[in-house]
Amino acid sequence: MTDAELRIIAFLMTSGATRPADLPDWLLGLLEGDCQSEPSHELITTASLMYVRRLHPGISFDTARILLAQYAADPARLADLSGRITAFRLSCCFERLKRAGRFEEILIEDPFDPEGAVSVKLTEAGWRSVNPELVPWDSGHGPHDFSLN
Asked: What is the pTM for the complete model shown?
């Protein structure tokens, strides 16, 4: 295991983190640096451990390792976990964009569900960056208005 993976495990096993919003900036930064076509060891460690902890709250690290080994031994379960890791990776990207001020609000039904619902609310600056010639957003249209007027 890398030093980063050990730091991730130490954090996750002593925190109640179950969503990207629960993760500190240093951890999201490690995951954001994951620009490879294949998921990094840090992403796999974080996502799989958080996913198992969501399914089995209070699980010990040793028990989680055994459970994850069972996932790895079963091609169908491994494929499912891989899809969930990919969904988690995208959820982390949304969280980093929110923290960077690009989104005002992000609602992700389940950060591990590849088919889950995602809703974002752009900041005023985000709206202007999409099309600087748009007229200012009128809050009277409601929270999810995409009209030009």
From this structure: 0.79
